[in-house]
Amino acid sequence: MPDDVQVNERLTIPAAELSWRFSRSSGPGGQGVNTTDSRVELSWDLAGSELLPAALRERAVVRLGGRLVNGVLTVTASEHRSQLRNREAAAARLAGLVAGAIVPPPRVRRATKPSRGAVERRIADKKRRSQVKRGRRGEMD
Description:
Layout: E1 5-6, E2 12-13, E3 18-23, E4 39-45, H1 54-63, E5 68-69, E6 72-77, H2 83-102, H3 116-136
Antiparallel strand pairs: 1-2, 3-4, 4-6, 5-6
């Protein structure tokens, strides 16, 4: 398994910038539960990395601010029983977070007015519906 983390087609985090930690995972594990370090923590120093351009790095730091500790982004994976699968899960989780954090913001929506014809059609439909409902009423004495 390559240790580099592929974020998107243009961005790959090299293994030299990643820090892996392994510990015992909670939950089911059978006989090996107390002996295997299958829980994975993957950390990347986002704020200190020169991999991203300054604008993208600033955008990512702002968007991931709640997840960063001293500029370091850490993800954990312990859902699988094998360390290898947890490593893959942590790498995918890190790639997804970084990819989501560096996407450009959506375009600002410009407010528009409905056309006069659209307004008139809406009012005519409302009047027609009102007539249908009025026709269903019984005569009150």
